[in-house]
Amino acid sequence: MTTPDAERHQADDEEVPALAEPDVPVPAPFVITKEHRRFTEFADAVRRDRYIGLCYGPPGVGKTLSARHYAGWDEVAPYLDAFTLIDGRLLPESALTARTVFYTPGLYNTPRSVQKTITFYQDRLNFAVQLATDCGLGGPDTAARFTTRSARNTELLVVDEADRLKTPSLEQIRDHYDRTGVGVVLIGMPGIEKSLARYPPALQPCRLRPPLTAALP
């Protein structure tokens, strides 16, 4: 005769079917296209000459994807969000290669919010690159050994959806450019070049480059 306890143990010994794991979408690999190579050449020129450049084109041509891939932002942004001066994690290689901050302003923005976010990421990237070039020497005295002003390791600021910026916020971007010397790429929709032409000369890009117009696959 089988007791209730024996029946329970027997049921426990039976193999329980494994639950099916949920399907996790795998991001598609980034495809290097002619248009992305054009953007890379454009961004490299802005970094090298440290001016304000303008990139515009219709939706879907790959402006944002090209910029995020250039900056390695999907990998760099989480690293910078959690960065500390005694961080022992290795800096992503893309951060050392591009030295670029990618920024998308909110639909409703102010000069203060724009500057706060840009400064947050640029200062952390400056420190992170400095620590990496110092062979990872961190610690409580790290801040005393160099400052963000002297460690201008950020070479490029990419502002996506620049159409959202009103004149005061654009003035803040221009002021940031003047104070830090970082190159700036403004990305927007067709017509942004005409909008910028209506602003005072101090707010207009120093040079205009051919826009991204061809569609990415």
Major pleated sheet: 4 strands, parallel
The oligomerization state is single chain
Gyration radius from CA atoms, angstroms:
24 Å
> What's the β-strand tally?
4
C-alpha end-to-end distance: 70 Å
Q: What structural category do the secondary elements indicate?
A: alpha/beta
Task: Compose a concise summary of this entry.
This protein has 217 residues and is an alpha/beta fold. The protein has helices at 4-13, 34-49, 63-71, 73-81, 93-98, 111-133, 142-145, 167-180, 192-197, and strands at 52-56, 100-103, 156-159, 183-188.
Tell me what the structure shows:
With 217 residues, the protein is an alpha/beta fold. It is 45% helix and 9% strand. Strands 1-4-3-2 form a 4-stranded parallel β-sheet, with helices on both faces. Helix 2 packs across helix 3 (63-71) and helix 6 (111-133) packs parallel to helix 8. The termini are far apart.
Give the arrangement of secondary structure elements.
Blueprint: H1 4-13, H2 34-49, E1 52-56, H3 63-71, H4 73-81, H5 93-98, E2 100-103, H6 111-133, H7 142-145, E3 156-159, H8 167-180, E4 183-188, H9 192-197
Helix pairs in contact: 2-3, 6-8
